[in-house]
User: Fold this.
Amino acid sequence: MFGSIIQDMVIDMNEARLNTVGQLTAFLEGTLDVDFRSQGNDGERYAVIGSVVARFAYGRLRRADKGVVMRYLRRTTGYSRQQLTRLIGRCLKGRPLTKRYRRPAQGFACKYTAADVTLLAQTDALHHTLSGPATRCLMQRAFTVYGDARYERLATLSVGHLYNLRRRAGYQATRLHWTKTHGHAVPIGARRAPAPDGRPGFIRIDSVHQGDQDGAKGLYHINAVDCVTQFEIVATCERLSEAYLLPVLEQIFAGFPFALLGFHADNGSEYINHTVSKLLDKLRVEFTKSRPRHSNDNGLAETKNGAIVRKSFGYSHIPQRLATQVNTFCQGFLNPYINFHRPCFFPDTVTSDNGKTRKRYLLKDMRTPYEKLKSLPHAAQFLKPGVTFATLDALAAAMSDNEAARRLNEARAKLFHTFPPRSEHVA
Assistant:
Protein backbone atom coordinates (compact mmCIF):
# COMPACT_ATOMS: atom_id res chain seq x y z
CA MET A 1 0.00 0.00 0.00
CA PHE A 2 1.29 3.46 -0.79
CA GLY A 3 0.47 7.15 -1.18
CA SER A 4 0.11 9.10 -4.41
CA ILE A 5 -0.71 12.60 -5.70
CA ILE A 6 -3.01 12.75 -8.74
CA GLN A 7 -4.38 16.02 -10.09
CA ASP A 8 -3.22 18.03 -7.04
CA MET A 9 -5.12 15.70 -4.64
CA VAL A 10 -3.59 13.24 -2.14
CA ILE A 11 -5.10 9.84 -2.91
CA ASP A 12 -4.39 6.72 -0.84
CA MET A 13 -5.25 3.37 -2.31
CA ASN A 14 -5.25 -0.40 -1.77
CA GLU A 15 -4.06 -1.90 -5.03
CA ALA A 16 -4.06 -5.58 -3.99
CA ARG A 17 -7.18 -6.23 -6.14
CA LEU A 18 -5.23 -5.38 -9.32
CA ASN A 19 -4.00 -8.81 -10.47
CA THR A 20 -4.09 -8.72 -14.27
CA VAL A 21 -2.62 -6.50 -16.96
CA GLY A 22 -6.17 -5.79 -18.15
CA GLN A 23 -7.11 -4.38 -14.76
CA LEU A 24 -4.02 -2.17 -14.84
CA THR A 25 -5.10 -0.91 -18.26
CA ALA A 26 -8.57 -0.14 -16.95
CA PHE A 27 -7.09 1.67 -13.98
CA LEU A 28 -4.96 3.77 -16.24
CA GLU A 29 -8.04 4.67 -18.27
CA GLY A 30 -9.77 5.73 -15.06
CA THR A 31 -12.71 3.25 -15.27
CA LEU A 32 -12.02 0.92 -12.30
CA ASP A 33 -13.38 1.52 -8.77
CA VAL A 34 -10.41 1.19 -6.40
CA ASP A 35 -10.24 1.51 -2.61
CA PHE A 36 -7.52 4.06 -1.58
CA ARG A 37 -5.70 4.22 1.76
CA SER A 38 -3.00 6.61 3.00
CA GLN A 39 0.68 5.70 2.62
CA GLY A 40 3.69 7.79 1.49
CA ASN A 41 7.46 7.31 2.11
CA ASP A 42 10.11 5.80 -0.17
CA GLY A 43 10.29 2.55 1.81
CA GLU A 44 6.60 1.87 1.23
CA ARG A 45 6.89 2.75 -2.44
CA TYR A 46 9.81 0.33 -2.78
CA ALA A 47 7.61 -2.37 -1.16
CA VAL A 48 4.82 -1.74 -3.67
CA ILE A 49 7.23 -1.89 -6.62
CA GLY A 50 8.61 -5.22 -5.39
CA SER A 51 5.06 -6.56 -4.83
CA VAL A 52 3.88 -5.55 -8.32
CA VAL A 53 6.98 -7.00 -10.02
CA ALA A 54 6.51 -10.31 -8.20
CA ARG A 55 2.71 -10.49 -8.59
CA PHE A 56 2.75 -9.88 -12.35
CA ALA A 57 5.93 -11.93 -12.98
CA TYR A 58 7.36 -8.87 -14.72
CA GLY A 59 10.36 -10.72 -16.14
CA ARG A 60 8.13 -13.12 -18.16
CA LEU A 61 5.72 -10.49 -19.52
CA ARG A 62 5.55 -9.44 -23.14
CA ARG A 63 7.07 -6.12 -24.14
CA ALA A 64 3.66 -4.41 -24.46
CA ASP A 65 2.51 -5.70 -21.05
CA LYS A 66 5.75 -4.51 -19.44
CA GLY A 67 4.93 -1.06 -20.78
CA VAL A 68 1.51 -1.17 -19.10
CA VAL A 69 3.05 -2.15 -15.76
CA MET A 70 5.67 0.56 -16.13
CA ARG A 71 3.00 3.19 -16.84
CA TYR A 72 0.99 1.99 -13.84
CA LEU A 73 3.99 2.31 -11.51
CA ARG A 74 4.85 5.72 -12.87
CA ARG A 75 1.29 6.88 -12.24
CA THR A 76 1.03 5.53 -8.72
CA THR A 77 4.55 6.04 -7.33
CA GLY A 78 5.51 9.31 -8.98
CA TYR A 79 8.95 7.98 -9.96
CA SER A 80 10.38 8.68 -13.40
CA ARG A 81 10.81 5.99 -16.04
CA GLN A 82 14.58 5.98 -15.50
CA GLN A 83 14.19 5.48 -11.73
CA LEU A 84 11.69 2.65 -12.18
CA THR A 85 13.92 0.94 -14.75
CA ARG A 86 16.76 0.84 -12.21
CA LEU A 87 14.52 -0.32 -9.33
CA ILE A 88 12.81 -3.05 -11.36
CA GLY A 89 16.21 -4.24 -12.56
CA ARG A 90 17.34 -4.64 -8.96
CA CYS A 91 14.16 -6.61 -8.18
CA LEU A 92 14.72 -8.97 -11.11
CA LYS A 93 18.27 -9.63 -9.88
CA GLY A 94 16.98 -10.50 -6.41
CA ARG A 95 18.49 -7.47 -4.70
CA PRO A 96 16.53 -5.78 -1.90
CA LEU A 97 15.04 -2.37 -2.63
CA THR A 98 16.57 -0.17 0.05
CA LYS A 99 18.18 3.26 0.03
CA ARG A 100 21.86 3.07 -0.73
CA TYR A 101 22.78 6.28 1.04
CA ARG A 102 22.13 7.91 4.37
CA ARG A 103 22.94 11.24 5.91
CA PRO A 104 25.92 11.24 8.29
CA ALA A 105 24.73 11.33 11.89
CA GLN A 106 27.06 14.16 12.88
CA GLY A 107 27.48 15.81 9.45
CA PHE A 108 30.80 16.12 7.67
CA ALA A 109 33.92 16.42 9.75
CA CYS A 110 35.79 19.73 9.61
CA LYS A 111 39.36 19.05 8.53
CA TYR A 112 40.85 22.49 9.21
CA THR A 113 40.42 23.77 12.75
CA ALA A 114 40.16 27.28 14.12
CA ALA A 115 43.86 27.06 15.01
CA ASP A 116 44.67 26.35 11.36
CA VAL A 117 42.68 29.42 10.25
CA THR A 118 44.51 31.57 12.81
CA LEU A 119 47.86 30.20 11.62
CA LEU A 120 46.92 31.01 8.02
CA ALA A 121 46.06 34.57 9.03
CA GLN A 122 49.40 34.93 10.81
CA THR A 123 51.26 33.61 7.78
CA ASP A 124 49.47 36.07 5.50
CA ALA A 125 50.29 38.91 7.86
CA LEU A 126 53.99 38.01 7.79
CA HIS A 127 54.16 37.86 3.99
CA HIS A 128 51.64 40.67 3.27
CA THR A 129 48.99 38.38 1.77
CA LEU A 130 50.63 36.75 -1.22
CA SER A 131 48.64 34.93 -3.88
CA GLY A 132 46.98 31.61 -3.06
CA PRO A 133 49.58 29.40 -4.79
CA ALA A 134 52.48 31.29 -3.19
CA THR A 135 50.91 31.06 0.28
CA ARG A 136 50.23 27.34 -0.14
CA CYS A 137 53.87 26.80 -1.18
CA LEU A 138 55.08 28.70 1.90
CA MET A 139 53.01 26.51 4.23
CA GLN A 140 54.17 23.34 2.47
CA ARG A 141 57.80 24.44 2.84
CA ALA A 142 57.22 25.28 6.52
CA PHE A 143 56.21 21.67 7.19
CA THR A 144 58.39 19.66 4.78
CA VAL A 145 61.57 21.78 4.72
CA TYR A 146 61.63 23.42 8.15
CA GLY A 147 59.72 20.79 10.13
CA ASP A 148 57.08 23.06 11.68
CA ALA A 149 54.41 20.58 12.84
CA ARG A 150 51.76 23.30 13.09
CA TYR A 151 51.54 23.33 9.28
CA GLU A 152 50.90 19.58 8.90
CA ARG A 153 47.29 19.99 7.76
CA LEU A 154 47.78 23.32 5.97
CA ALA A 155 50.60 21.78 3.91
CA THR A 156 48.00 19.77 1.98
CA LEU A 157 45.52 22.65 1.65
CA SER A 158 44.28 23.26 -1.89
CA VAL A 159 44.56 26.73 -3.36
CA GLY A 160 40.81 26.95 -3.88
CA HIS A 161 39.99 26.08 -0.27
CA LEU A 162 42.65 28.50 0.94
CA TYR A 163 40.44 31.36 -0.26
CA ASN A 164 37.49 29.77 1.56
CA LEU A 165 39.45 29.83 4.82
CA ARG A 166 40.32 33.48 4.23
CA ARG A 167 36.60 34.25 4.21
CA ARG A 168 35.98 32.67 7.61
CA ALA A 169 35.08 34.89 10.54
CA GLY A 170 38.12 33.74 12.53
CA TYR A 171 40.49 34.80 9.77
CA GLN A 172 38.92 38.22 9.32
CA ALA A 173 38.84 38.78 13.07
CA THR A 174 42.59 38.08 13.23
CA ARG A 175 43.43 40.23 10.22
CA LEU A 176 41.29 43.31 10.69
CA HIS A 177 42.71 45.05 7.61
CA TRP A 178 41.83 42.24 5.23
CA THR A 179 39.45 43.39 2.48
CA LYS A 180 38.42 42.25 -0.94
CA THR A 181 39.96 43.88 -3.99
CA HIS A 182 37.59 46.53 -5.33
CA GLY A 183 37.61 47.84 -8.86
CA HIS A 184 38.38 51.54 -9.27
CA ALA A 185 36.40 53.41 -11.88
CA VAL A 186 37.59 56.83 -13.05
CA PRO A 187 34.50 59.06 -12.94
CA ILE A 188 35.58 61.14 -15.94
CA GLY A 189 33.82 60.75 -19.27
CA ALA A 190 31.17 58.26 -20.33
CA ARG A 191 32.65 54.95 -21.53
CA ARG A 192 30.87 54.62 -24.88
CA ALA A 193 31.20 55.54 -28.53
CA PRO A 194 29.91 58.99 -29.59
CA ALA A 195 26.47 59.11 -31.20
CA PRO A 196 26.42 62.13 -33.55
CA ASP A 197 23.20 61.11 -35.38
CA GLY A 198 24.29 62.97 -38.50
CA ARG A 199 25.26 66.16 -36.63
CA PRO A 200 28.73 67.74 -36.97
CA GLY A 201 30.58 68.73 -33.83
CA PHE A 202 31.44 65.33 -32.34
CA ILE A 203 35.22 65.17 -32.58
CA ARG A 204 37.59 62.28 -31.92
CA ILE A 205 41.01 63.24 -30.69
CA ASP A 206 44.38 61.49 -30.38
CA SER A 207 48.05 62.31 -29.77
CA VAL A 208 50.97 61.51 -32.06
CA HIS A 209 54.51 61.54 -30.66
CA GLN A 210 57.21 62.72 -33.01
CA GLY A 211 60.01 60.34 -31.96
CA ASP A 212 62.90 60.34 -29.45
CA GLN A 213 66.55 61.12 -30.13
CA ASP A 214 69.56 60.88 -27.83
CA GLY A 215 67.28 60.51 -24.83
CA ALA A 216 65.31 63.65 -25.69
CA LYS A 217 61.56 63.55 -26.34
CA GLY A 218 60.11 64.97 -29.52
CA LEU A 219 57.09 67.23 -29.85
CA TYR A 220 53.47 66.03 -29.90
CA HIS A 221 50.80 66.47 -32.56
CA ILE A 222 47.19 66.70 -31.40
CA ASN A 223 44.86 65.42 -34.11
CA ALA A 224 41.10 66.12 -33.84
CA VAL A 225 38.64 64.80 -36.45
CA ASP A 226 34.89 65.33 -36.71
CA CYS A 227 32.93 62.06 -36.90
CA VAL A 228 30.44 63.12 -39.58
CA THR A 229 32.27 65.56 -41.87
CA GLN A 230 35.89 64.45 -41.26
CA PHE A 231 36.73 68.12 -40.71
CA GLU A 232 40.17 67.93 -39.12
CA ILE A 233 42.38 70.23 -37.08
CA VAL A 234 46.04 69.33 -36.40
CA ALA A 235 47.95 71.30 -33.75
CA THR A 236 51.35 70.87 -32.09
CA CYS A 237 52.61 71.28 -28.53
CA GLU A 238 55.90 70.66 -26.77
CA ARG A 239 54.60 68.35 -24.04
CA LEU A 240 51.35 66.76 -22.95
CA SER A 241 51.29 68.59 -19.64
CA GLU A 242 48.50 70.94 -18.63
CA ALA A 243 50.50 74.10 -19.33
CA TYR A 244 51.12 73.13 -22.96
CA LEU A 245 48.06 71.04 -23.83
CA LEU A 246 45.19 73.28 -22.71
CA PRO A 247 46.08 76.24 -24.97
CA VAL A 248 46.37 73.86 -27.91
CA LEU A 249 42.98 72.32 -27.14
CA GLU A 250 41.41 75.78 -27.06
CA GLN A 251 43.06 76.54 -30.40
CA ILE A 252 41.66 73.30 -31.85
CA PHE A 253 38.16 74.06 -30.60
CA ALA A 254 38.33 77.52 -32.17
CA GLY A 255 39.49 76.07 -35.50
CA PHE A 256 36.27 74.19 -36.20
CA PRO A 257 33.62 76.28 -38.02
CA PHE A 258 30.78 74.54 -36.18
CA ALA A 259 29.94 74.35 -32.49
CA LEU A 260 31.42 71.43 -30.56
CA LEU A 261 28.92 68.95 -29.12
CA GLY A 262 31.08 65.93 -28.24
CA PHE A 263 34.70 65.13 -27.34
CA HIS A 264 35.87 61.51 -27.60
CA ALA A 265 39.33 60.30 -26.58
CA ASP A 266 41.06 57.05 -25.82
CA ASN A 267 42.09 56.31 -22.23
CA GLY A 268 45.28 58.38 -22.21
CA SER A 269 45.82 60.41 -19.06
CA GLU A 270 46.53 63.57 -21.10
CA TYR A 271 42.78 63.75 -21.80
CA ILE A 272 41.20 61.69 -19.00
CA ASN A 273 41.84 64.18 -16.21
CA HIS A 274 39.88 66.72 -14.21
CA THR A 275 41.45 69.71 -15.96
CA VAL A 276 40.24 68.72 -19.44
CA SER A 277 36.91 67.59 -17.97
CA LYS A 278 36.44 71.02 -16.36
CA LEU A 279 37.21 72.74 -19.68
CA LEU A 280 34.65 70.59 -21.53
CA ASP A 281 32.04 71.15 -18.82
CA LYS A 282 32.53 74.89 -19.21
CA LEU A 283 31.89 74.60 -22.95
CA ARG A 284 28.92 72.23 -22.41
CA VAL A 285 30.61 69.53 -24.51
CA GLU A 286 29.81 65.83 -24.00
CA PHE A 287 32.88 63.87 -22.86
CA THR A 288 33.18 60.20 -23.90
CA LYS A 289 36.06 57.71 -23.85
CA SER A 290 36.85 54.43 -25.59
CA ARG A 291 35.59 51.09 -24.31
CA PRO A 292 37.81 48.03 -23.70
CA ARG A 293 38.02 45.63 -26.64
CA HIS A 294 36.33 48.15 -28.98
CA SER A 295 39.20 49.28 -31.18
CA ASN A 296 36.87 51.13 -33.57
CA ASP A 297 35.72 53.60 -30.91
CA ASN A 298 38.61 55.93 -31.85
CA GLY A 299 39.43 54.32 -35.17
CA LEU A 300 38.77 57.46 -37.24
CA ALA A 301 41.43 59.47 -35.40
CA GLU A 302 43.89 56.55 -35.59
CA THR A 303 43.36 56.34 -39.37
CA LYS A 304 43.91 60.06 -39.83
CA ASN A 305 47.11 59.82 -37.76
CA GLY A 306 48.64 57.70 -40.47
CA ALA A 307 47.01 59.27 -43.53
CA ILE A 308 47.59 62.91 -42.53
CA VAL A 309 50.03 63.39 -39.66
CA ARG A 310 52.59 60.66 -40.42
CA LYS A 311 52.38 61.33 -44.15
CA SER A 312 53.09 65.02 -43.54
CA PHE A 313 55.79 64.78 -40.85
CA GLY A 314 57.09 61.20 -41.03
CA TYR A 315 58.42 59.30 -38.02
CA SER A 316 61.74 61.08 -37.41
CA HIS A 317 62.48 63.08 -34.30
CA ILE A 318 61.43 66.74 -34.25
CA PRO A 319 62.73 68.69 -31.23
CA GLN A 320 60.21 70.12 -28.80
CA ARG A 321 61.61 73.61 -29.15
CA LEU A 322 60.29 73.70 -32.74
CA ALA A 323 56.68 73.12 -31.68
CA THR A 324 55.67 76.74 -32.32
CA GLN A 325 57.02 76.69 -35.89
CA VAL A 326 55.35 73.36 -36.66
CA ASN A 327 52.06 74.57 -35.16
CA THR A 328 52.17 77.70 -37.35
CA PHE A 329 52.68 75.49 -40.41
CA CYS A 330 49.68 73.34 -39.43
CA GLN A 331 47.35 76.31 -38.97
CA GLY A 332 48.48 78.19 -42.04
CA PHE A 333 48.92 75.40 -44.61
CA LEU A 334 48.09 71.86 -43.49
CA ASN A 335 44.63 72.40 -42.00
CA PRO A 336 43.24 74.54 -44.88
CA TYR A 337 44.48 71.98 -47.39
CA ILE A 338 43.00 68.87 -45.76
CA ASN A 339 39.64 70.55 -45.05
CA PHE A 340 39.03 72.49 -48.28
CA HIS A 341 41.10 70.71 -50.93
CA ARG A 342 41.72 67.07 -49.97
CA PRO A 343 38.84 64.68 -50.87
CA CYS A 344 37.81 61.89 -48.49
CA PHE A 345 35.69 58.77 -48.81
CA PHE A 346 32.39 58.82 -46.94
CA PRO A 347 30.66 55.51 -46.30
CA ASP A 348 27.25 54.53 -47.62
CA THR A 349 25.63 52.33 -44.95
CA VAL A 350 23.42 49.51 -46.23
CA THR A 351 21.28 47.36 -43.93
CA SER A 352 20.52 43.81 -45.09
CA ASP A 353 17.29 41.89 -44.49
CA ASN A 354 18.78 40.11 -41.46
CA GLY A 355 19.66 43.41 -39.76
CA LYS A 356 23.40 43.47 -40.49
CA THR A 357 24.92 46.75 -41.64
CA ARG A 358 27.60 47.01 -44.29
CA LYS A 359 29.50 50.11 -45.34
CA ARG A 360 30.31 50.79 -48.96
CA TYR A 361 32.80 53.43 -50.12
CA LEU A 362 31.72 54.67 -53.54
CA LEU A 363 33.55 57.11 -55.78
CA LYS A 364 30.44 59.26 -56.17
CA ASP A 365 30.42 59.87 -52.41
CA MET A 366 33.98 61.23 -52.29
CA ARG A 367 34.22 64.93 -51.40
CA THR A 368 36.19 67.34 -49.21
CA PRO A 369 35.23 67.75 -45.54
CA TYR A 370 33.91 71.24 -46.27
CA GLU A 371 31.71 69.95 -49.11
CA LYS A 372 30.40 67.25 -46.78
CA LEU A 373 29.55 69.92 -44.19
CA LYS A 374 27.61 71.99 -46.75
CA SER A 375 25.70 68.91 -47.94
CA LEU A 376 24.17 68.20 -44.51
CA PRO A 377 20.49 69.06 -44.05
CA HIS A 378 20.11 72.47 -42.40
CA ALA A 379 23.90 72.79 -42.24
CA ALA A 380 23.83 76.52 -41.44
CA GLN A 381 22.30 75.88 -38.02
CA PHE A 382 25.44 74.05 -36.88
CA LEU A 383 27.83 76.95 -37.63
CA LYS A 384 29.28 79.05 -34.84
CA PRO A 385 27.94 82.55 -34.33
CA GLY A 386 29.67 84.92 -36.75
CA VAL A 387 30.69 82.12 -39.16
CA THR A 388 28.85 81.95 -42.50
CA PHE A 389 29.10 79.78 -45.56
CA ALA A 390 29.87 82.87 -47.62
CA THR A 391 33.10 83.36 -45.65
CA LEU A 392 33.98 79.67 -45.86
CA ASP A 393 33.21 79.58 -49.61
CA ALA A 394 35.68 82.42 -50.09
CA LEU A 395 38.38 80.44 -48.28
CA ALA A 396 37.66 77.33 -50.37
CA ALA A 397 37.73 79.26 -53.67
CA ALA A 398 40.80 81.35 -52.86
CA MET A 399 43.00 78.86 -54.70
CA SER A 400 42.72 75.57 -56.58
CA ASP A 401 43.47 72.18 -55.08
CA ASN A 402 46.75 71.96 -56.98
CA GLU A 403 47.81 75.45 -55.87
CA ALA A 404 46.99 74.62 -52.24
CA ALA A 405 49.03 71.40 -52.48
CA ARG A 406 51.93 73.29 -54.07
CA ARG A 407 51.94 75.92 -51.30
CA LEU A 408 51.75 73.15 -48.69
CA ASN A 409 54.76 71.30 -50.13
CA GLU A 410 56.84 74.47 -50.40
CA ALA A 411 56.07 75.46 -46.82
CA ARG A 412 56.84 71.96 -45.56
CA ALA A 413 60.18 71.87 -47.37
CA LYS A 414 61.07 75.26 -45.91
CA LEU A 415 60.05 74.06 -42.44
CA PHE A 416 62.08 70.86 -42.68
CA HIS A 417 65.21 72.84 -43.63
CA THR A 418 65.07 74.43 -40.18
CA PHE A 419 65.20 71.04 -38.45
CA PRO A 420 68.62 69.94 -37.12
CA PRO A 421 70.27 66.94 -38.82
CA ARG A 422 69.33 63.58 -37.38
CA SER A 423 71.87 62.11 -34.98
CA GLU A 424 73.55 58.79 -35.75
CA HIS A 425 72.90 57.62 -32.17
CA VAL A 426 69.24 57.28 -31.35
CA ALA A 427 68.18 56.66 -27.77
Remarks:
- The longest helix spans residues 323-340.
- The longest strand covers residues 202-209.
- The chain has three domains: 2-92, 114-174, 192-345+402-417.
